[in-house]
């Protein structure tokens, strides 16, 4: 609930920023077009229309963020986050049309010369004010857009930075036009029309891809797959999907785990994967994890043994007090020794089994075959999705493997001795 409220607050913060930017940009539009008409400066009027295109884009962001901040409902169970994207798409089409109209005006002015005898002091001042305002708008939009991951605010910030460059060219163009240098006015209007056209096309294309649920972040997709694979109990990750919904992302993926895992444990694993994603990545609105049984038949097993003699090694009578451990990779037809581990904690008196588990947990174990196991070690292994089977002391490793394949081994569903005994003489 708290996470949901934080997201709403972020959207409201973004909406306020976009609203302020809208008002400032509206002032710039009126100033440029008004002064441009007063001084008959077609370049400044064109720049005013460029700012008007920016105004539409910023308004789209503000309106979209306002809609997105509305609560989920029965009719819209996923929220209205995509409203920002939809409005941006519509405004992108309008900006594209404005760019085409501006191109026509620039093409006409390219061959039509009209000079002013009056020094354009006010148009120059208006352009300088525009440069300063564009800088502050861009800074604010970028900081807030980064904070809330609003793609529209970030896009508008980039366009505001471009406005600084455009206004600088307009400033130079006004001076050159006053000096009666031909083709300047038409050329700059054509340049501005291309910038407007580019802005509209970019808004259209980006929002279209988002509305069509295109994969816009393949790197994030790969990172999430690697992150989930680190979780103990996960046997594989597939079909990671990242959907952009307004300023937020929705994640879907499938994870594979042991076929013997109970349903409630599978839910625990899914919740663990979900928490891992939300903790490590910002702006995630929801995560859906689908758990499936692993199709891979190969499993990793650990067995406490008395000696190191390959598959003929003998099972020790207790998990934590064994001098050695053999790690074996098993499938339906063969068994391969992956490693031997020497128990370096035998001289210690408490929690030996826990220390052994922490040392061997990197093998991503699936099975433990043991004669006895203490309470803490038992629950620690169960928490890490390890199935535990009971075997007799003195059995060879090959006998244990055969018994497991023939389904002759009994699972251990509770510790074989109490906590007090684990802490004193065993572990």
**Biggest sheet: strand arrangement:** 6-5-4-7-8-9
| Second CATH tier, the architecture of the largest domain | Up-down Bundle
Order of helices and strands: HHHHHHHEEHEEEEHEHEHEH
Number of helices: 12
How would you characterize the largest beta sheet? 6 strands, mixed
**Approximately what portion of the residues adopt beta-strand conformation?**
5-15%
Low-pLDDT sequence parts: 420-427
What is the terminal separation in angstroms? 42 Å
Q: Label the overall shape.
A: rod-shaped
Any idea how many domains?
3
Tally of extended strands? 9
Cα-atom radius of gyration: 34 Å
Task: Explain the overall architecture.
- The chain is an alpha/beta fold and 427 residues long.
- It has three domains: 210 residues, Alpha-lytic protease prodomain-like; 76 residues, Alpha-Beta Plaits; 126 residues, Dinitrogenase iron-molybdenum cofactor biosynthesis domain (Nucleotidyltransferase, domain 5), CATH 3.30.420.
- Helix content is 56%, strand content 15%.
- It has twelve helices and nine strands.
- The strands form two sheets. Strands 6-5-4-7-8-9 form a six-stranded mixed sheet, with helices on both faces. Strands 1-2-3 form a three-stranded mixed sheet, covered by helices on one side.
- A hairpin with a 4-residue loop joins strand 5 and strand 6.
- Helix 3 runs antiparallel to helix 6 and helix 4 packs antiparallel against helix 5.
- The longest helix has 37 residues.
- The radius of gyration is 34 Å and the shape is rod-shaped.
- It starts with a helix and ends with a helix.
- The C terminus is likely disordered.
């Amino acid at each position: 609930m708290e996470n949901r409220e934080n997201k709403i607050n972020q959207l409201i913060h973004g909406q306020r920023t976009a609203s302020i930017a809208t008002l400032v940009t509206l002032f710039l539009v009126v100033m440029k077009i008004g002064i441009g008409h007063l001084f008959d400066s077609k370049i400044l009027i064109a720049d005013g229309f460029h700012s008007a295109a920016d105004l539409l884009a910023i308004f789209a962001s503000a309106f979209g963020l306002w809609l997105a901040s509305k609560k989920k409902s029965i009719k819209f169970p996923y929220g209205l986050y995509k409203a920002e994207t939809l409005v941006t798409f519509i405004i992108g089409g309008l900006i594209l049309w404005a760019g085409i109209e501006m191109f026509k005006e620039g093409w006409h002015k390219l061959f039509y010369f009209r000079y002013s005898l009056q020094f354009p002091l006010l148009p120059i001042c208006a352009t300088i004010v525009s440069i300063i305002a564009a800088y502050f708008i861009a800074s604010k939009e970028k900081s807030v857009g980064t904070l809330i991951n609003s793609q529209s605010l970030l896009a508008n910030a980039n366009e505001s930075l471009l406005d600084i460059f455009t206004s600088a060219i307009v400033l130079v163009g006004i001076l050159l036009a006053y000096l009666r240098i031909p083709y300047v006015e038409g050329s700059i209007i054509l340049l501005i029309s291309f910038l407007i056209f580019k802005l509209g096309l970019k808004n259209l294309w980006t929002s279209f891809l988002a509305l069509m649920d295109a994969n816009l972040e393949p790197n994030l997709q790969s990172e999430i797959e690697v992150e989930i694979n680190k979780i103990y109990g996960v046997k594989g990750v597939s079909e990671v999907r990242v959907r952009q919904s307004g300023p937020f992302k929705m994640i879907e993926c499938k994870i594979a785990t042991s076929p013997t895992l109970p349903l409630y444990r599978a839910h625990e694993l899914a919740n663990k994967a979900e928490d891992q994603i939300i903790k490590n990545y910002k702006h995630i609105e929801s995560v859906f994890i689908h758990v499936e049984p692993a199709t891979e038949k190969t499993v990793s097993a650990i067995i406490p043994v008395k000696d190191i003699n390959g598959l003929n090694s003998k099972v020790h009578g207790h998990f934590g007090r064994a001098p050695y451990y053999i790690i074996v990779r098993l499938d339906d037809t063969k068994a391969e020794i992956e490693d031997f581990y020497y128990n370096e904690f035998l001289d210690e008196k408490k929690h030996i089994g826990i220390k052994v588990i922490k040392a061997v947990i990197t093998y991503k174990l699936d099975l433990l075959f043991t004669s006895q196991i203490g309470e803490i070690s038992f629950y620690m292994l169960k928490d890490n999705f390890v199935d535990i089977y009971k075997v007799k002391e003195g059995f060879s490793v090959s006998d244990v493997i055969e018994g497991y394949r023939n389904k002759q081994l009994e699972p251990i569903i509770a510790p074989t001795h109490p906590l007090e005994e684990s802490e004193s003489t065993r572990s």
